[in-house]
Model the fold of this input.
Amino acid sequence: MNTDPNDPKDPLMTDHEYDGIRELDNKLPRWWVWLFVITTFYAVGYMLFYHVAHGGNLQAAEYAAEMKQAEEVKAQAISAFEVGIPTLTPSADETILASGHQIYGTYCAACHRADGGGLVGPNLTDDYWIHGSKFSDNVTVIWNGVPAKGMVTWKNVLKPNEVYAVASYIYTLRGAKLATPGKPPENQTPSAN
Done:
């Protein structure tokens, strides 16, 4: 093979050389050229359709439309949950209770103690419940919170099934025997020693 760049018999070699490596002047494969032409026409058509003629939604508009649709579905699910709260009963399913225990440990134990004995928040193991002792009352308190008493509104943080799981777990704490005494019931004042 002739390696002289000036030789007309070797049109594949150019006169560009660097560090002993010579550049070739190969033609591109036809399939690659046609792919390039097709993508160029597609890009021009895409630009005209979306950016010039505004014939379709761009990504930001599609995202906004999907978020609106998701918010509607979420609002329906929340509404269905809120309507059903009065008829809810605590779950005995071990999986749901385990999930509720994990959620309780993450979000509730800081105020109600890990064993439910009460810290800043009330004792959850006694028989006195400030806002009602029915299971549905407990779900409502978790869901809506009691901002006047410092109880956070959890419906903005937890999903309905998570609220149900933690309420079911808390329901199992009633009457629990604690290793260390819990906070006195809210209807009693602590005795001065």
